[in-house]
Amino acid sequence: MERIILHVDINNCFASIEAALNPSLKGRAIAVCGSEKERHGIVLAKSEAAKRFGVRTGDTVWQARQKCPGLVTVQPHYEQYLRYSAMARRIYDSYTDRVEPFGLDECWLDVTGSTKLFGSGEKIAHDIRERVKRELGVTVSVGVSFSKLFAKVGSDMKKPDAVTVIDREHYMDIVGDLSADAVMGVGRSTSEILHRHGIYTVRDIAQAGQDNMRRFLGKNGLDLWRQISGTDGLPVACSYSVNVPKSVSSGITTGEDMFNRDEICRVMLSLSGEVSARLRDEQMCACGVQIGVRTSESLKWHQYQMPLEYPVQSVSGLYGAACRLIGQYDWASPVRSVSVRAVNLCPAGSALQQNMLGGLEEYEKRERADEAAYKICKRYGRGAVASAGLLFKTKMPSGVRVNSLPGAEKNAYKQEGS
Q: pTM for the complete prediction?
């Protein structure tokens, strides 16, 4: 039996939700932006009216205002976006238990088994579109197809408030002339490789054949060819399935440039606290740490990564590795943004192999102390226990709450041998 896959995309999600919350914004050119004072003045989302003036996600606020002099800017309200996303999910769940989110604003639905109750895939798509508009006050675009890839292509083809059907029999007639980068998984670097081999459209990918695509792009090329050929069969996950994170990270653009190691380490101490708490929430440990620093001048990201001796959840374990990694940065340019990421995750409580040089006892002591502080914060609120290192001035944006646990700074420098 042919699968029926829907891809539902909330149109201009953040901007649409802001207009639903404040009806005076409906129909106006609005952009959801970060704080200009705190150097987050980037367009995160824009309304249809702003889009018609050429405003794009990623524009700086001053660039957006040059394109659209009457632009209305609003601060983001992430808690509301999460609330609307959850309400939309409840609508989707009423049609099928196979709902797979793809960010806050997008979901795939497998409604193959729902047609006897609710009608064809196209009818279900229109029902969902009308219910979301009526119950939430925002619009969605829905793609209906036989695969996840082409369902998503369909939701992108007509916006806003539309349904597009791409069936197997006629799919190449519908999508064949689209640019190759119109399909998920084809970014700028992949496009450049394809162009070097004379591949520009979706039809070109299909006609290139699996052997050539494997030669051009390796396994990713073979996977892409299978998806374009409609033979991939990638399933839509169940609503109740548990997604195991591959990494956990936290990052920030600071209120001022950072010029030395001490300044950036204070910020990484706070970020390490965020990552540590999320690792404990997920019951995962990090076997490696990665940091990212973005320069103020070129906005170029530099990344550094290292393995850990033992899997850690503690702030001090993450922070110590982050501080060692920042030593690899040459400080040719001040730092504007920084991130700390826990990588190579494993379940908490996994068996450990003791290092021949010892250190397991100290490691276990540090993890237990950190866990005790985490439990205090869970019971009495974030910030109930914090590192003394964060009492000093940091360059975190105002209004951002720092979060770490006691002993992190001392233990981190101890690990560095200083």
A: 0.68
